[in-house]
Amino acid sequence: MMYNSPRSGRNRRGSKLHRSPAAAHSKAFLALSALLVLVFATGGASRADVESLPVLRPAATAFLFLGLYWLNGEHLRAHRFLLLWGGACAALVLAQLIPLPPPMWQGLPGRDLIVQIDQAVGLGDHWRPLTMTPAATRNAFWSLMPPLACLVLAVQLEPAEHKKVLLLVLALGLTSGVMGMLQLLGDPKGPLYLYDVTGHGQAVGLYANRNHQALLLAAMLPMLAAWALTRDGANSARLRALVATGAGAFFIPLLLITGSRAGLIMGSVGLVLAGVIIAATRRHRAGQSAP
To answer: How many C-beta atoms lie closer than 10 Å to residue 247's C-beta?
Structure first.
């Protein structure tokens, strides 16, 4: 007779699988954590000639296929919109690489000059894709692999693992912030700048561009608010609030130092969202504790 343990995971068909007490994390959590660390370490630039991308993008593609293999019916039903949205983004890029018949392609706006050049040099009619720059479009498609892999893995997380992923992202964001501060204090051409084409002398952190660093710091603000309000018996709410306040006091001046106008706008949005999260959570908890 088989004994069914109360600890359970899920198999590919969505039915319950038995999880041993030693299995503290799901496969999706471990894969997502590894991918996030790899993204922050090698994915700070989007130029097609960045040397780290041949490492990141194939690895992200492998994680994507793993995540798709682990998906089950429950994941698909619960996160149908997000998964369809991610698939639609990839399909939109791929559709621009499909060769079109000459009459259809030549009838599109902005093709007149190319048609005249073809006729002048005697190239004749050629099937061409919708995009005018196929190489750039292929680069855009491969750039979707990391976020799509993160999406597919994230929808498979157990509820308790959401807090751990949030903490990991905050730690990586803090690392980028500290590196940005050290970059300002150090040599503008020093080894702390990870990319050849970058903002030397600026606080770019783990990125090549100050705008990307500023957007990351802005995104940290509502994340800090969410983390400070999570309930965990191992940590007091007051300690979390103090740590989150201190981290926010570090992120905000550093965001201002980046000099990114987009970052300043998004930083304001981040502060508003942090306030909304705090207010909504307190209101919800007050409603739960009311008699």
So the answer is: 20
For tokens 């009838």, what's the residue?
107
Residue 190 is classified by DSSP as S
| Type of residue found at 287 | G
H runs (alpha helix) in the chain = 27-42, 53-70, 73-78, 80-95, 102-106, 112-121, 134-143, 145-154, 159-185, 210-228, 237-258, 261-289
Query: What is the Cα–Cα distance from 261 to 247, expressed in whole angstroms?
Result: 22
Residue 81 near residue 151 (C-beta atoms within 8 A): no
Residue ranges of the chain whose pLDDT lies below 50? 1-22
Distance CA 92, CA 95 (A): 5
Which residues lie below 8 Å from residue 2, measured CB to CB, with a gap of 6+?
none
Distances (CA, A) of 124 to 102, 106, 142: 9, 12, 32
Cα 17 from Cα 20, distance rounded (Å): 10
How far is CA 257 from each of CA 73, 113, 204, 229, 252, rounded to the nearest angstrom?
47, 46, 10, 28, 9
- Residue-wise pLDDT tens digits, 43-98: 999 888 899 999 999 999 999 999 999 999 999 999 999 999 999 999 999 999 99
Q: Give the residue from 248, 211, 209 showing the smallest Cα distance to 227.
A: 248
Q: How far is CA 78 from CA 71, 74, 155, 214, in A?
A: 11, 6, 8, 33
